[in-house]
Amino acid sequence: MAISLNTRISQTVSLTPQLQQSIKLLQLSNSELEQELAKEAEENPLLEFEPNPEIESNISQTSERLEINQSPWTSNHRISQEDDEDWGEQYERIAHKQTLLEYLEEQIHLLNIGAEEQSIVAYLAGCLDDRGYLPEDLQTIYADIETQLSTADSFERLEKALTKLQSLDPPGVGARNLAECLSLQINRILENVDTDRESWELAKEIASSHLSKVGTKDWQKIKQASGKTEVAVLKAVNLIRTLQHNPGSQFERENDQWILPDVVVKLKNKRWTAESNPNAKPRLSLNSEYAKILKEHGQKKIDGALKQKMIEASWLVKNITQREETILRVAQSIVSRQQQFFSIGAIGMRPLVLREIAEELEMHESTISRVTTQKYLACPLGIFEFKYFFSSQVSSENGSGISSTAIQALIKKIVGEESPNKPISDTQIAQLLGEQGYSIARRTIAKYRDILRIPPVHLRKQ
Question: Do residue 351 and residue 284 come from a single domain?
Fold first, then answer.
């Protein structure tokens, strides 16, 4: 037997604990942050945490509340600035249910993979939207965390981490589009089903390659492409319709828990400005007694475990401060662009995408995405989630643009003023908007009407 010595150099993927903590804190809502800080203070004696009395005292109140606005027309929920300057002290109850991220993190901790791989899977889980989809491509995510990865095959590790994420429940989570979402669910079914395998396999083929044809009910082309009968195609399509299009929908929140706005928007010198809500500021600090002892004895003489606790406490306090600064900067950038909205409502909303804010603040779009989720601002119109202020652009005939949110507000206004005996059709709405200089296709009107949950013309007629 030959014995030899070999030298081998290897690299590992590592997201620093401080970065992981920063990412986690940034995506938490105020109520979730309270719970996280209470837990950290319980485990670390160097931290002093005082629960927010504004949240605790208002959870049990039944006084009149503001509504968190997600519809494009909010005139019914306006507050007079003269009557109430302290909008930041108003709250909205939404139900606390386990979030999709919390559910995924529970499963990630049980995966039989290393700590580094777990941290990457958890990072990807934090990038998911409310539907459970991964809206950003892997190259974009890789560019965001590349500096934190130290291995040459780190992109391949990212791809493997996505595969691990897609193996978790609910089935279809982590998909990048509807076709992949349906395919992931069908793959899970095929692993366990003994009957109807042929129909499920055809369903997977249709979901992967012919989903657009299902939308137009073009059964003939699906038959030709798959070589199956129309009966088999229709059976497969019916199976597809039993699947979940939005895996994260079961984790949507209902109105049952108090929300404290992160930011307050006020009119100063004829311009709307954003300020941090002092009532939302986390009450976290380093224990003064321990800090005094550390200062007197010097860090070199401190016990190793205590020194580590001190480092962790300092990280947390620093990351909390950074979280507050980032939220305020994003809010100020949004408010500066949406001045008309705060003056006249949703009709004044201008087109805005994450990239605009990211470029101005020199941050990555994924960071802006985290900041705009479950973060709220209070203004005279009500309480709004940051992400409400982002919408695509619709071009007008004169070359200027209007946001899709503003178009939806116009549609709702037109329908609200129609005659119950003679409701306005989608084509007529498109014509009315055309007269105002906005060239909108009839099918786009129909899409926005569906989003607004406005029934079609024949169902609105009385």
Answer: yes
